[in-house]
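User: Structure please.
Assistant: Input sequence and predicted structure:
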Amino acid sequence: MNSTLDKFFSKKQITNGKRKSSKDESEKKEKQSKKKLDKLESPKKTITADKIKDETQIDHSFLSFESFIDYLGTWKEPLKSYLNSEKMKSIYKFISKEYSNKNILPSKDLIFNAFDKTAFDYLKVVLIGQDPYPTPGNAMGLSFSVPRGISVPKSLQNIYKCLEKDGKVTFKAPKHGDLTKWASQGVFLLNATLTVEANKANSHKKSGWTDFTDFVIKTISDKTEGIVFLLWGNYAIEKKKFIDAKKHFIIENIHPSPLAASKGDFTQSKQFSEINDILMKEGKTPIDWNLGD
């Protein structure tokens, strides 16, 4: 690791976009986007541990390619060039074969859950994880999130502690780890790799997913403005090369995992209130970080 990145272990850094925007125009755009999102979203289903368990059994059938990419919803148009490429077809072939004879997580209808829960035109924050939880029943297609009924992972416990210690945020840690409420407010919970074989962490790292999600990050950077990118740990920080810091805001920190504790105290950061400060300056509605019981 170079000396510049070493600084990120002790203190997060924020790169502020230099763009000057009209508050009125931003508020108008957000209202239009929210109205569009309300029309597009189907009734929310609650994701529970039992439902995940039922859906992660080996299913010897798989979606057609058209049905597969349909799960991308509002993201299909901005990602069109990649979806029409041989790269995406190669990912599909790999994934369909894997789902046909192995226990792959998450269930096939949740592979693009992050895209489904956060419409492209309603995007505010991007939080990048690495790959889904490999324990059956835990993966739900949202980075750092687990369904209700599953014990809250230690990394997410530290995220909750960080929120509780942030004096400008009113937050009470819930007993669950379902982050769907954040996603529905514009927090894009993206894993770099979208699938994994059960009990084999990072087993799909060569599937082509990272090339796809790198394209997603660059597309967000190119086609939007004023997005807050939250990069935790070296793996996520490396994605900074796809982000235009003149148009967007980048917050870097150590990873919330207890394994990174020797590099600093993640929980002492005020990053969540800083995200809301940025959003308000951009004329956007701040995130309600509370997740309820």
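The two ends are 40 Å apart (CA to CA).
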